[in-house]
Amino acid sequence: MKKWKQKAIVQKLISYLPFAQKINYFFQKHVTKGEKLDDEYFYDRLGHAKEHINCYQKYTGNSYPLSSLEIGTGWYPIVPISLFLIGSECIYSVDISMLTSKERIATTLKKFSECHRIGKLNQYINFKPERFEVINSILANIEKLDLKQILNQLNITYIIEDARNLSLLDNSIDLVNSNNTFEHIYPEILIPILKEFKRVVKKKDGVMSHFIDMSDHFAHFDKTINIYNFLQFTDKQWKWIDNSIQPQSRIRIYDYTKIYNDLEIPISDLTYRKGNIEELKTIKLSPSFASKPVEEIAISHCHYISNMTKI
User: What domains are defined for the chain?
Assistant: First the structure.
Protein backbone atom coordinates (compact mmCIF):
# COMPACT_ATOMS: atom_id res chain seq x y z
CA MET A 1 0.00 0.00 0.00
CA LYS A 2 1.33 3.44 -0.93
CA LYS A 3 2.51 5.66 1.91
CA TRP A 4 -0.08 8.34 1.17
CA LYS A 5 -2.90 5.82 1.54
CA GLN A 6 -1.49 4.61 4.85
CA LYS A 7 -1.30 8.19 6.10
CA ALA A 8 -4.82 8.95 4.87
CA ILE A 9 -6.20 5.94 6.75
CA VAL A 10 -4.36 6.83 9.96
CA GLN A 11 -5.46 10.49 9.84
CA LYS A 12 -9.03 9.44 9.09
CA LEU A 13 -9.07 7.18 12.13
CA ILE A 14 -7.45 9.81 14.35
CA SER A 15 -10.01 12.41 13.24
CA TYR A 16 -12.77 10.44 14.96
CA LEU A 17 -10.95 10.32 18.31
CA PRO A 18 -11.09 12.77 21.24
CA PHE A 19 -8.06 15.11 21.36
CA ALA A 20 -7.45 14.37 17.68
CA GLN A 21 -4.95 17.24 17.20
CA LYS A 22 -2.80 16.13 20.14
CA ILE A 23 -2.81 12.55 18.89
CA ASN A 24 -1.90 13.74 15.39
CA TYR A 25 0.99 15.78 16.81
CA PHE A 26 2.26 12.70 18.66
CA PHE A 27 1.98 10.66 15.45
CA GLN A 28 3.87 13.28 13.40
CA LYS A 29 6.53 13.73 16.07
CA HIS A 30 7.30 10.06 16.63
CA VAL A 31 6.31 8.37 13.36
CA THR A 32 6.41 10.66 10.31
CA LYS A 33 8.76 13.25 11.88
CA GLY A 34 6.62 15.93 10.22
CA GLU A 35 6.52 18.23 13.24
CA LYS A 36 10.19 19.20 13.18
CA LEU A 37 10.98 22.84 12.40
CA ASP A 38 13.55 22.34 9.68
CA ASP A 39 15.35 24.99 7.65
CA GLU A 40 13.18 24.43 4.58
CA TYR A 41 9.97 25.23 6.43
CA PHE A 42 11.51 28.09 8.43
CA TYR A 43 12.90 29.91 5.40
CA ASP A 44 9.74 29.28 3.38
CA ARG A 45 7.66 31.04 6.04
CA LEU A 46 10.29 33.73 6.46
CA GLY A 47 9.99 34.31 2.72
CA HIS A 48 6.23 34.62 3.13
CA ALA A 49 6.75 37.17 5.89
CA LYS A 50 9.00 39.18 3.58
CA GLU A 51 6.34 39.16 0.85
CA HIS A 52 3.53 40.13 3.24
CA ILE A 53 5.59 43.06 4.51
CA ASN A 54 6.60 44.14 1.00
CA CYS A 55 2.97 44.08 -0.14
CA TYR A 56 1.88 46.11 2.86
CA GLN A 57 4.60 48.69 2.26
CA LYS A 58 3.83 48.86 -1.47
CA TYR A 59 0.14 49.58 -1.08
CA THR A 60 0.22 51.79 2.02
CA GLY A 61 3.60 53.54 2.06
CA ASN A 62 3.93 52.59 5.74
CA SER A 63 7.00 50.81 7.10
CA TYR A 64 5.06 48.15 8.97
CA PRO A 65 1.51 47.30 10.09
CA LEU A 66 0.71 48.31 13.66
CA SER A 67 -1.83 45.49 13.82
CA SER A 68 -2.00 42.15 12.02
CA LEU A 69 -4.12 39.03 11.92
CA GLU A 70 -3.02 35.61 10.74
CA ILE A 71 -5.18 32.52 10.37
CA GLY A 72 -3.75 29.04 10.76
CA THR A 73 -0.38 29.93 12.27
CA GLY A 74 0.13 26.35 13.39
CA TRP A 75 2.92 25.06 15.61
CA TYR A 76 5.60 27.64 14.86
CA PRO A 77 4.67 31.38 14.71
CA ILE A 78 7.32 32.45 12.21
CA VAL A 79 5.35 35.19 10.46
CA PRO A 80 3.99 36.72 13.72
CA ILE A 81 7.50 36.88 15.18
CA SER A 82 8.77 38.46 11.95
CA LEU A 83 6.10 41.16 12.27
CA PHE A 84 7.10 41.72 15.90
CA LEU A 85 10.71 42.18 14.85
CA ILE A 86 9.87 44.91 12.32
CA GLY A 87 7.76 46.86 14.83
CA SER A 88 4.14 45.60 14.91
CA GLU A 89 2.34 46.27 18.18
CA CYS A 90 -0.77 44.04 18.06
CA ILE A 91 -0.27 40.68 16.40
CA TYR A 92 -3.25 38.32 16.39
CA SER A 93 -3.33 34.66 15.42
CA VAL A 94 -6.69 32.95 15.05
CA ASP A 95 -7.19 29.19 15.03
CA ILE A 96 -9.74 26.65 16.23
CA SER A 97 -7.27 25.22 18.76
CA MET A 98 -4.01 26.20 20.44
CA LEU A 99 -1.34 24.38 18.46
CA THR A 100 1.76 26.16 19.72
CA SER A 101 3.45 25.76 23.08
CA LYS A 102 6.31 27.23 25.09
CA GLU A 103 8.62 24.54 23.68
CA ARG A 104 7.64 25.25 20.06
CA ILE A 105 7.98 29.01 20.45
CA ALA A 106 11.41 28.54 22.04
CA THR A 107 12.36 26.40 19.03
CA THR A 108 11.15 29.15 16.69
CA LEU A 109 13.07 31.86 18.54
CA LYS A 110 16.24 29.77 18.41
CA LYS A 111 15.81 29.50 14.64
CA PHE A 112 15.56 33.29 14.41
CA SER A 113 18.63 33.64 16.60
CA GLU A 114 20.61 31.24 14.39
CA CYS A 115 19.37 32.99 11.23
CA HIS A 116 20.57 36.32 12.64
CA ARG A 117 23.90 34.83 13.78
CA ILE A 118 24.78 33.62 10.28
CA GLY A 119 23.81 36.97 8.77
CA LYS A 120 20.71 35.87 6.84
CA LEU A 121 17.85 37.48 8.76
CA ASN A 122 18.35 40.97 7.33
CA GLN A 123 18.04 39.46 3.85
CA TYR A 124 14.38 38.83 4.68
CA ILE A 125 13.23 41.53 7.09
CA ASN A 126 14.42 44.95 8.20
CA PHE A 127 14.19 44.14 11.90
CA LYS A 128 14.61 46.59 14.75
CA PRO A 129 17.71 45.78 16.88
CA GLU A 130 15.83 46.56 20.10
CA ARG A 131 13.16 44.06 19.14
CA PHE A 132 15.78 41.38 18.58
CA GLU A 133 17.12 42.08 22.07
CA VAL A 134 13.69 41.03 23.37
CA ILE A 135 14.18 37.65 21.69
CA ASN A 136 17.63 37.33 23.25
CA SER A 137 16.18 38.17 26.65
CA ILE A 138 13.40 35.61 26.30
CA LEU A 139 15.85 32.88 25.33
CA ALA A 140 18.16 33.80 28.21
CA ASN A 141 15.28 33.53 30.68
CA ILE A 142 13.24 30.81 28.99
CA GLU A 143 13.12 28.55 32.05
CA LYS A 144 11.57 31.31 34.18
CA LEU A 145 8.88 32.35 31.69
CA ASP A 146 5.57 30.71 30.92
CA LEU A 147 3.83 30.72 27.52
CA LYS A 148 1.62 33.72 28.32
CA GLN A 149 4.59 35.83 29.43
CA ILE A 150 6.53 34.96 26.27
CA LEU A 151 3.61 35.83 23.99
CA ASN A 152 3.05 39.13 25.83
CA GLN A 153 6.66 40.14 25.25
CA LEU A 154 6.27 39.32 21.55
CA ASN A 155 3.00 41.32 21.23
CA ILE A 156 1.26 38.12 20.06
CA THR A 157 -2.30 37.25 21.05
CA TYR A 158 -3.81 33.89 20.14
CA ILE A 159 -7.55 34.02 19.47
CA ILE A 160 -8.99 30.54 19.83
CA GLU A 161 -12.35 30.96 18.15
CA ASP A 162 -14.27 30.44 14.94
CA ALA A 163 -12.77 32.74 12.31
CA ARG A 164 -16.26 33.16 10.85
CA ASN A 165 -17.22 35.15 13.94
CA LEU A 166 -14.21 37.09 15.17
CA SER A 167 -14.24 39.11 18.38
CA LEU A 168 -12.19 41.85 16.70
CA LEU A 169 -13.69 45.27 15.95
CA ASP A 170 -14.68 46.49 12.51
CA ASN A 171 -11.95 48.24 10.55
CA SER A 172 -9.28 47.45 13.15
CA ILE A 173 -6.52 45.41 11.42
CA ASP A 174 -3.81 46.77 9.12
CA LEU A 175 -2.66 43.45 7.63
CA VAL A 176 -4.57 40.17 7.33
CA ASN A 177 -2.46 37.27 6.12
CA SER A 178 -2.26 33.51 5.81
CA ASN A 179 0.35 31.01 4.71
CA ASN A 180 -0.84 27.87 2.92
CA THR A 181 -3.99 27.71 5.03
CA PHE A 182 -6.87 28.39 2.63
CA GLU A 183 -6.39 25.05 0.86
CA HIS A 184 -7.38 23.34 4.13
CA ILE A 185 -10.69 25.21 4.31
CA TYR A 186 -13.71 24.16 2.28
CA PRO A 187 -15.53 26.94 0.39
CA GLU A 188 -18.63 26.89 2.62
CA ILE A 189 -16.37 27.84 5.54
CA LEU A 190 -13.82 29.95 3.67
CA ILE A 191 -16.45 32.33 2.27
CA PRO A 192 -17.74 33.51 5.68
CA ILE A 193 -14.15 33.69 6.94
CA LEU A 194 -13.23 36.03 4.09
CA LYS A 195 -16.34 38.09 4.88
CA GLU A 196 -15.03 38.49 8.42
CA PHE A 197 -11.59 39.44 7.17
CA LYS A 198 -13.20 42.05 4.96
CA ARG A 199 -15.05 43.39 8.00
CA VAL A 200 -12.06 43.67 10.34
CA VAL A 201 -9.39 44.88 7.90
CA LYS A 202 -8.95 48.64 7.63
CA LYS A 203 -10.48 50.20 4.54
CA LYS A 204 -7.76 52.86 4.50
CA ASP A 205 -4.23 51.51 4.39
CA GLY A 206 -5.43 47.94 4.97
CA VAL A 207 -4.00 44.98 3.06
CA MET A 208 -4.81 41.28 2.77
CA SER A 209 -2.11 38.86 1.63
CA HIS A 210 -2.78 35.13 1.28
CA PHE A 211 -0.51 32.33 0.03
CA ILE A 212 -2.29 29.17 -1.14
CA ASP A 213 -0.72 25.77 -1.90
CA MET A 214 -3.09 23.89 -4.21
CA SER A 215 -0.93 20.77 -4.52
CA ASP A 216 -1.88 17.39 -3.10
CA HIS A 217 -0.26 17.53 0.33
CA PHE A 218 0.04 13.75 0.43
CA ALA A 219 2.62 14.15 -2.34
CA HIS A 220 4.80 16.10 0.10
CA PHE A 221 5.03 12.88 2.11
CA ASP A 222 4.88 10.22 -0.61
CA LYS A 223 7.18 10.92 -3.56
CA THR A 224 5.65 8.09 -5.61
CA ILE A 225 2.68 10.32 -6.46
CA ASN A 226 2.64 13.76 -8.02
CA ILE A 227 0.99 16.95 -6.77
CA TYR A 228 -2.14 16.38 -8.87
CA ASN A 229 -2.90 12.88 -7.59
CA PHE A 230 -5.99 13.91 -5.60
CA LEU A 231 -7.69 15.39 -8.67
CA GLN A 232 -8.54 11.91 -9.98
CA PHE A 233 -11.19 11.37 -7.33
CA THR A 234 -14.83 12.42 -7.48
CA ASP A 235 -16.11 14.66 -4.70
CA LYS A 236 -17.89 11.66 -3.16
CA GLN A 237 -14.71 9.58 -3.20
CA TRP A 238 -12.63 12.41 -1.80
CA LYS A 239 -15.06 12.87 1.07
CA TRP A 240 -14.17 9.35 2.23
CA ILE A 241 -10.42 9.88 1.76
CA ASP A 242 -10.16 13.37 3.25
CA ASN A 243 -10.05 14.02 6.99
CA SER A 244 -10.56 16.79 9.53
CA ILE A 245 -6.95 16.63 10.78
CA GLN A 246 -5.50 18.06 7.58
CA PRO A 247 -8.41 18.60 5.16
CA GLN A 248 -7.70 19.49 1.54
CA SER A 249 -10.40 21.34 -0.35
CA ARG A 250 -8.90 20.69 -3.85
CA ILE A 251 -10.41 23.92 -5.23
CA ARG A 252 -8.40 25.59 -7.97
CA ILE A 253 -7.30 29.12 -8.76
CA TYR A 254 -10.47 29.93 -10.74
CA ASP A 255 -12.55 28.97 -7.67
CA TYR A 256 -10.61 31.33 -5.41
CA THR A 257 -10.88 34.15 -7.92
CA LYS A 258 -14.64 33.66 -8.15
CA ILE A 259 -14.93 33.76 -4.34
CA TYR A 260 -12.99 37.02 -4.22
CA ASN A 261 -15.10 38.54 -7.00
CA ASP A 262 -18.38 37.42 -5.44
CA LEU A 263 -17.38 38.98 -2.10
CA GLU A 264 -16.15 42.13 -3.85
CA ILE A 265 -12.69 41.76 -2.35
CA PRO A 266 -10.21 43.45 -4.71
CA ILE A 267 -7.46 41.38 -6.31
CA SER A 268 -4.75 44.00 -6.54
CA ASP A 269 -2.10 41.49 -7.52
CA LEU A 270 -2.12 37.75 -8.20
CA THR A 271 1.02 35.70 -8.73
CA TYR A 272 1.18 31.95 -9.26
CA ARG A 273 3.29 28.97 -10.25
CA LYS A 274 2.24 27.48 -13.57
CA GLY A 275 2.78 23.94 -12.36
CA ASN A 276 3.60 21.02 -14.62
CA ILE A 277 1.07 20.24 -17.36
CA GLU A 278 2.90 17.05 -18.39
CA GLU A 279 2.62 15.70 -14.84
CA LEU A 280 -1.04 16.70 -14.75
CA LYS A 281 -1.67 14.73 -17.95
CA THR A 282 -0.56 11.53 -16.21
CA ILE A 283 -3.64 11.77 -13.99
CA LYS A 284 -7.10 10.77 -15.21
CA LEU A 285 -8.98 13.76 -13.90
CA SER A 286 -12.35 13.53 -12.22
CA PRO A 287 -15.12 14.99 -14.47
CA SER A 288 -15.45 18.06 -12.22
CA PHE A 289 -11.86 19.01 -13.11
CA ALA A 290 -11.55 17.54 -16.60
CA SER A 291 -13.91 20.15 -18.06
CA LYS A 292 -11.65 23.06 -17.03
CA PRO A 293 -8.64 24.51 -18.92
CA VAL A 294 -5.60 22.37 -18.22
CA GLU A 295 -3.41 25.46 -17.78
CA GLU A 296 -5.57 26.61 -14.86
CA ILE A 297 -5.88 23.17 -13.31
CA ALA A 298 -2.08 22.81 -13.35
CA ILE A 299 -1.42 25.97 -11.30
CA SER A 300 -0.04 24.69 -8.01
CA HIS A 301 0.55 27.77 -5.83
CA CYS A 302 -0.79 31.30 -5.79
CA HIS A 303 -0.61 34.55 -3.83
CA TYR A 304 -3.62 36.86 -3.61
CA ILE A 305 -2.97 40.47 -2.56
CA SER A 306 -5.77 42.92 -1.81
CA ASN A 307 -5.39 46.66 -1.35
CA MET A 308 -8.50 47.25 0.74
CA THR A 309 -8.38 51.02 0.15
CA LYS A 310 -9.79 50.15 -3.28
CA ILE A 311 -13.14 49.04 -1.80
Answer: 37-214+251-310 (3.40.50.150)
List Cα–Cα distances, 23 to 19, 34, 275, 299, in angstroms: 6, 13, 34, 33
Q: At what angle do helices 102-117 and 39-60 cross, to 10 degrees?
A: 80
Sheet with 207-213: strands ordered across: 156-160, 90-95, 67-71, 175-179, 207-213, 301-307, 269-273
Q: How far is CA 136 from the centre of its chain?
A: 26
Measure CA 157 to chain center.
Answer: 17
Cβ proximity of 111 and 82 under 8 Å? no
- Structure confidence by residue, pLDDT tens digits, 227-278: 999 999 999 999 999 999 899 999 999 999 999 999 999 999 999 999 999 9
| Helix segments in 118-180, DSSP class H | 129-140, 147-153
Integer CA distances (angstroms), 117 to 135, 214, 231, in order: 13, 34, 43
3-state SS class at 38: coil
Q: Is the pTM of this model over 0.85?
A: yes
Q: What are phi and psi of 160, to 5 degrees?
A: -95, 90
Is the predicted pLDDT of residue 145 greater than 90, yes or no? yes
The Cα 132–Cα 208 span in angstroms is 26
Partner residues linked to 44 by β-bridges: none
Contact by Cβ (8 Å): 86, 92: no
Q: What is the DSSP letter of 227?
A: T
**∠ CA(263), CA(179), CA(194), 5° rounding?**
15
Yes or no: say if 231 and 183 are a contact pair by the CB < 8 Å rule: no
